[in-house]
């Protein structure tokens, strides 16, 4: 056991099997505190609440809110100085920029990065059935996460007064998005980038969907709509030829562990076109103000 402090959260809820697997593995390399949603918060992205209730839990705390709420509470309300945030292990992959933007697993890692603590967002996939089926454990993704966390935390900080104290080091990255196969015999870790997959499919809900989701319209990522398949979730083999080799989905299709090092968003953009836009609006605004002042004088 090191002196490292790891905050563990997820979006599937504090009782999820994926979180339990990570908790058991990570305790071998760090002091782990769980601060996770009290119930399932899948697909909420980085949504935050204005107020939350927090209950004690044998591993830490259950927050009645989103994954980002959990991270904010832990990093700002608790006295513990965490070295690393681990979010997961998600029940299903989080690949592609659009899907990742809706992922509560990734959203927790992004929130941690904004609050100054590096993070791992870990998701698990099944090689044939895409989402982990019943009967499969999260042992392999949890072991991979332990190895990543151990190496991330073991770099000594030469500038620290206590150089023996481990710290999280992700170089230029703020967080890693990791998609790991359920099988321990699958391929290597592969550095990847999220593939672009923007879009939303909007359609009228079926009678069954209306009853299940209480809504007349379905709004889903149109990633699924671009493929012809018999069932709701295609196997990886059905969609395997669609991605460039560098992408996270290509790694998942190959059965590898996809590791995407990422920075937090809102990157400033400077261009001649943006300069022209601002200048044009400035001229229009000045003209409107001048006309308004003249009307007031009359």
CATH architecture of the largest domain: 3-Layer(aba) Sandwich
In percent terms, what proportion of residues is strand?
A: 15-25%
Number of strands: 13
Largest sheet data = 9 strands, mixed
Order of helices and strands: EHEEEHEHHEHEEEEEHEHHEH
Q: Which shape, going by the Cα principal axes?
A: globular
The radius of gyration is 22 Å
CATH superfamily of the largest domain: Survival protein SurE-like phosphatase/nucleotidase
Q: How confident is the prediction overall: mean pLDDT?
A: 84
Query: Which structural class should the secondary elements be placed in?
Result: alpha/beta
CATH class category label of the largest domain: Alpha Beta
Poorly predicted runs are 224-234
Number of individual domains = 2
N-to-C CA distance:
79 Å
Helix % is: 25-40%
Number of helices: 9
CATH structural fold name of the largest domain: Stationary-phase Survival Protein Sure Homolog, Chain: A
For the biggest β-sheet, the strand order reads 3-4-2-1-5-6-9-13-10
């Amino acid at each position: 056991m090191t002196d490292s402090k790891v905050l563990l959260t997820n979006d599937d809820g504090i009782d999820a099997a994926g979180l339990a697997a990570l908790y058991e593995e990570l305790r071998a390399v760090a002091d782990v505190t769980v601060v996770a949603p009290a119930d399932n918060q899948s697909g909420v992205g980085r949504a935050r609440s204005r107020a939350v209730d927090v209950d004690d839990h044998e591993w830490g705390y259950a927050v009645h809110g989103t994954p980002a709420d959990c991270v904010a509470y832990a990093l700002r309300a608790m006295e513990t100085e965490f070295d690393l945030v681990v979010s997961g292990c998600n029940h299903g992959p989080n690949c592609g920029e659009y899907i990742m933007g809706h992922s509560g697993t990734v959203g927790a890692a992004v929130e941690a990065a904004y609050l100054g603590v590096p993070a791992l967002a870990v998701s698990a996939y099944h090689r044939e059935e895409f989402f982990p089926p019943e009967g499969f454990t999260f042992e392999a993704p949890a072991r991979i996460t332990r190895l990543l966390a151990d190496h991330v935390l073991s770099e000594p900080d030469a500038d620290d007064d206590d150089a023996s104290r481990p710290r999280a080091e992700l170089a230029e990255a703020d967080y890693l998005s990791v998609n790991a196969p359920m099988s321990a015999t699958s391929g290597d870790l592969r550095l990847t980038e999220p593939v672009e997959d923007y879009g939303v499919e909007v359609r009228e809900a079926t009678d069954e969907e209306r009853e299940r989701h209480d809504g007349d319209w379905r709004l889903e990522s149109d990633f699924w709509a671009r493929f012809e398949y018999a069932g709701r979730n295609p196997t990886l083999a059905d969609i395997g030829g669609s991605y460039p080799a560098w992408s996270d989905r290509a790694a998942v299709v190959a059965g590898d562990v996809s590791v995407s090092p990422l920075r937090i968003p809102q990157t400033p953009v400077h261009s001649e076109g943006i300069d022209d836009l601002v200048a044009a609006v400035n001229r229009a605004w000045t003209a409107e103000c001048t006309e308004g002042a003249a009307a007031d004088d009359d």
